[in-house]
């Protein structure tokens, strides 16, 4: 797996780096999600992942009420908000140039579009914490987005992968 330090997950997509402080936050996020998930996916990925981020101090997010102007009905709303203007940087995050969830470093937050492999709602999408071994934690552990080789051909689309600055 790609480590949180730096990487070039997509050919030609450039490089990215995470600060030592950001790497610590990524480690804490995985630990927090592993400890506090519901034990199974119950259709509340946004609520759980937002809670993991705000209670573990991910980026500059440290309160559940942070980013009050972000719609939060669906997981895709997180990506739509963070992909606008300087919103990600305002909250101490960066969007990584990654197009397959399988390439997300441990401790990053992955958002996939509705209809992607591993999702059930046609428009909501999914938001999850990358564990780093090809699995993810949303409101439950062990989430997958299907085989790497067929993610895109099976209708998968990454809306964003985020890590602390």
Quick structural gist:
The protein is built from 4 helices and 7 strands. By secondary structure, it is of the alpha+beta class.
Give an overview of the whole structure.
This protein is α+β, with helices and mostly antiparallel strands and 165 residues long. The chain has one domain: Alpha-Beta Complex (endopeptidase fold (from Nostoc punctiforme)). It has 4 helices and 7 strands; from the N terminus they run E-E-H-H-H-H-E-E-E-E-E. The protein has helices spanning 20-36, 45-56, 75-82, 87-90; strands at 6-7, 16-17, 93-95, 109-112, 126-130, 136-137, 158-164. The strands form 2 sheets. The protein has a 5-stranded antiparallel sheet. Strands 1-2 form a two-stranded antiparallel ribbon. A hairpin with an 8-residue loop joins strand 1 (6-7) and strand 2 (16-17). Helix 1 (20-36) crosses helix 2. It is globular, with a radius of gyration of 14 Å.
- The H-level CATH homologous superfamily, spelled out, is endopeptidase domain like (from Nostoc punctiforme)
Q: Under CATH, the topology is which?
A: endopeptidase fold (from Nostoc punctiforme)
How many distinct folded domains? Answer: 1
Gyration radius (Cα, Å) is 14 Å
- Based on Cα principal axes, name the global outline: globular
**Spatial order of strands in the largest sheet:** 3-7-4-5-6
Mean pLDDT: 90
* Unreliable runs: 6-13
- Give the helix level as a range of percent: 10-25%
In the CATH scheme, the class would be Alpha Beta
Q: How many angstroms does the end-to-end distance come to?
A: 20 Å
- Classify the beta-strand content into a percent band: 15-25%
Q: How many individual β-strands?
A: 7
Number of helices: 4
CATH architecture: Alpha-Beta Complex
Sheet of most strands: 5 strands, antiparallel
Structural class: alpha+beta
N-to-C SSE string, H for helix and E for strand: EEHHHHEEEEE
